[in-house]
Amino acid sequence: MAKALLGYVATPSVHQQVRETQLRRRIADLEAEVVRLKHENDELSASTDLDQVRLSTADLLETAGS
Q1: Strand, helix or coil for residue 66
Q2: Whole-prediction pTM value?
């Protein structure tokens, strides 16, 4: 009987399978977005000389508070 119950509980329902598929698709979309943003960030970094632009956290907070 325990085997029968375990088999019943361990088998995902159709709703769970649909939800899992949606979540996997969302994860793939978010991973693609991360790659796109990293690429965009690399392009922006390359186009700007970051060695000359040095901002401290205090500078950023001051700018945000103004």
Answers
A1: coil
A2: 0.55
Label residues 28-65 b or e (16+ Cβ within 10 Å = b): eeeeeeeeeeeeeeeeeeeeeeeeeeeeeeeeeeeeee
Q: What are the backbone angles phi and psi of residue 48, rounded to the nearest 5°? A: -120, 135
Tokens 């945000």 appear where? 64
Q: d(Cα 38, Cα 62) in Å, to the nearest integer?
A: 27
> How confident is the chain (66 residues) per 10-residue block, as mean pLDDT?
63 89 97 95 77 63 65
User: Encoding tokens for residue 30?
Assistant: 């978010």
